[in-house]
Every structure is written in C-alpha cells, then in structure tokens.
UniProtKB/TrEMBL annotation:
It is a multi-pass membrane protein. It comes from Rehmannia glutinosa. This is CASP-like protein. InterPro entries: CASP/CASPL (IPR006459), CASP_dom (IPR006702), CASPL (IPR044173). The keyword Membrane applies.
Amino acid sequence: MKPEEGPIEESKKLRVSRGISILDLVLRIIAIFGTLGSAVAMGTTDETLPFSTQALIFQAQYDDIPTFRFFVIANAIVCGYLAISLPMAIYHVIRTRAAKSRALLIFLDTIMLAVLTAGASAAAAVVYLAHKGNASANWLAICQQYQNFCQRITGSLIGSFGAVLILILLIPLSGLILSRQR
C-alpha cells in the first residue's frame, strides 16, 4: 500500500482488479467454446455431390486442403492452451496481486493470438476463393456445387475470429491489471 493511499482506495483498487480478473476468466471460457466449435465444425466438414457414380465420386473434405488442416490444428492448440490457462485465471481471481504469472499469461496469450490469427486468416483466404474463385488464375468457385461444405467452412470462421477478438481484449486487460499494481 502506498503511503498516500488509504484503506478505502486500496480496497477499491482490489475490487476493480478482481472484477477485471473475473472478466478475464469469463472471456477465456467463451474463447474456448469459439475455438472448439470452429475446430469441430471444420474438422467434420465433408460433402459428396448427389450425381456421383461408383466410378467417379465428387467429394469435398476439409483435409483435402492443407490450409484447412492448419486451421483445425491452430484452433485445437489455442483451445487446449485456453483450457490449461483456466486454473491460472482462477488463481488470478483469488490472488489479484500475482504479477509474474499474469505477465506469463500475457506473453503466452500473444503467441496464441498470432497462431490463431494465422490459421483463421489463411482459412478465410481459401474460403473467399471457394466462394468467388479467381478468373485470372483460372480457379473456379466451388460453392455453387458444394453449398453445405461452403456454409460449414464459412461458419467455422466465425468462432475462430471471435476468439481472436477475445484474445485481443485479454492482452490489454491483463496489462491494465499489471499497471494498476505499480
């Protein structure tokens, strides 16, 4: 406690820090569901066209495209990290003055933000090509034929980009609590 601060100001700072720590915990839980949902939605996406024959099967699966595999792996890694970071987030609710563990979370959150952004952005580029194609490169849009496939891969991007936004919020929130402790 600083000499110029009274017990009332110290108590108020503690309550604000605890509230931000609770918000951090809730946002982590929401991000877990976003990344898990995105990984499952993309990982279970496949479609076979109805006019396929035994000799010729027209099928689209997520693992046909390496970018989608990277997307699933990135979301799974970030989901696992967020699940593992939950006990530390609970610890920060209980002990709001824990500075070193909060600094470690900021560092790891930043790394996970980079991994998730890379996976989601790469998948978004492929989804865009699936919807629009590219006439210059002679790439045709496949979403007219594989509508369910395209709806699922597009929908899986929502949870992933939502988790990116949450991680973007978590980093300055943790930094705010660290700066209030000085």
